[in-house]
Amino acid sequence: MKLIECPRDAIQGLYHFIPTEKKINYINLLLESNLFDTIDFGSFVSPKAIPQMADTAEVVRGLDLSKSNAKLLAIIANERGATEASQFEQISYLGYPFSISETFQLRNTNATIAESLERVKAIQEISEKFDKQLVIYISMGFGNPYGDKWNAEIAIKWVDELQKLGIKIFSLSDTVGVATPESITYLFENLIPKYPNLEFGAHLHTTPDTWQEKIDAAYRAGCRRFDGAILGYGGCPMAADELVGNMPMENLLTYHSAPKGELAIEQLISAFQELIS
């Protein structure tokens, strides 16, 4: 099992700026816990778009990976961000949100889907040059609220197109919490057997009463990579004014009966509450 903790996703929409030193201390606690395979810790995007992430370069310089097996993932939205993130040896993964909703792709990265495909090609070249691995988030992967055409075959079509570029990791993203157990099952059951050499993850946003059925559907369909955020905080600030929360990491740990790390999840919850206070 791979658990990806996403403090970046949890705090990026908060209005008050969290001091850089507080972010560094919190992410170092996550690293030390050894509960997670990967920490989605920040993003190299325009500070005008996501002010909370303006200090990502400073944050990464303050992180200590010497006591952790976890890897770092940074979100990028274009070639400039990919090049900037690639300068840091500490970062293993670059994450790019590839929306299959035209409306949301424009809102999120200021590019059409066609333009985004060209960006992915360029970003993949940068990733390979600097020995990084590109993670593609199939955003709005389970539907969208904008009236753009959606069906499961569209998501499958774009995975097929993008994997031709040599991309090995795809995370299916329920950006606005519209996924059902049926749609989750259908997508993973049709992708995982077809592409045995690819890694598929679930980045599920959820309401408090639907988290378990979503995890269960993905797990039973063969998914073994799950994103979450402590206390289910956050969501995508580009998606809607009323955010659907992230999958609570404490629920993922309970569901998967994950072994306890050096720090109990209760301590991390307390640390997160202090971070955002």
Question: What does it look like?
Answer:
This protein has helices spanning 7-11, 20-33, 56-61, 79-85, 102-109, 113-129, 152-163, 181-191, 211-220, 249-255, 265-276; strands at 2-5, 38-44, 71-76, 91-99, 133-139, 169-174, 199-204, 225-228. An 8-stranded parallel sheet has the order 7-6-5-4-3-2-1-8. The chain is globular. Mean pLDDT is 91; it is low at 237-241. The longest helix is centred in the middle third of the chain and has 17 residues, at 113-129. It is of the alpha/beta class and 277 residues long. It has a single domain (2-276), classed as Aldolase class I (TIM Barrel), CATH 3.20.20.
Task: List the keywords.
about 280 residues; alpha/beta; eight-stranded parallel β-sheet; about 40% helix
Largest sheet: 8 strands, parallel
For the record, the CATH class is Alpha Beta
Count of strand segments: 8
Helix content: 25-40%
Average pLDDT for all residues: 91
Summarize this entry quickly.
The chain has 277 residues and is α/β, with parallel strands linked by helices. The protein has helices spanning 7-11, 20-33, 56-61, 79-85, 102-109, 113-129, 152-163, 181-191, 211-220, 249-255, 265-276; strands spanning 2-5, 38-44, 71-76, 91-99, 133-139, 169-174, 199-204, 225-228. It is globular and about 45 Å long.
